[in-house]
Design a protein that fits this description.
Length: about 140
């Protein structure tokens, strides 16, 4: 009897351990892919904002890939994005140019839509979506 019980419980224990291990692996990979899915690449015209050190991206289209040639663009939207540069991203040199921006949507800090960058440069009420810019790539010197 003891031998039969062991013969049944041992494979069940191993199966349970494998299920727990697979779930743990999927959860750890899922959090990384969720962060990657939040990242977005947009192409548009970089413009100076109404306040110092603020920028917007207009004539926006989503980019499918970051190839070395011209970006593979999707349909344009009427949406303009307020840009929040992160780290050493320099937007100032690209004002008036067509650029490809990669970043993540900025989280709103209040229900009023007020957002502040980590450097404290931007603060205000926003009706446009905000994007924390992690990289910029120059496409053309002029905007359509």
């Amino acid at each position: 009897m003891r031998m039969r019980l062991t013969a049944v419980l041992l494979p069940l224990t191993i199966c349970l351990a494998l299920v727990v291990y697979a779930q743990t692996q999927r959860n750890s990979m899922g959090s990384a892919s969720q962060e990657e899915n939040r990242s977005m690449t947009l192409t548009g015209c970089l413009q100076a904002g109404s306040e110092p050190n603020t920028y917007t991206l207009s004539n926006v289209s989503m980019s499918r890939s970051r190839s070395s040639g011209a970006p593979n663009e999707m349909a344009r939207t009427e949406t303009s994005y307020k840009l929040i540069p992160e780290g050493n991203v320099n937007l100032k040199d690209h004002v008036g140019h067509k650029v490809e921006i990669t970043g993540t949507p900025a989280k709103e800090e209040s229900s009023m839509g007020t957002s502040t960058s980590s450097s404290g440069e931007y603060s205000g009420t926003s009706s446009s979506p905000e994007l924390k810019v992690s990289s910029i790539r120059h496409i053309a010197k002029t905007c359509p």
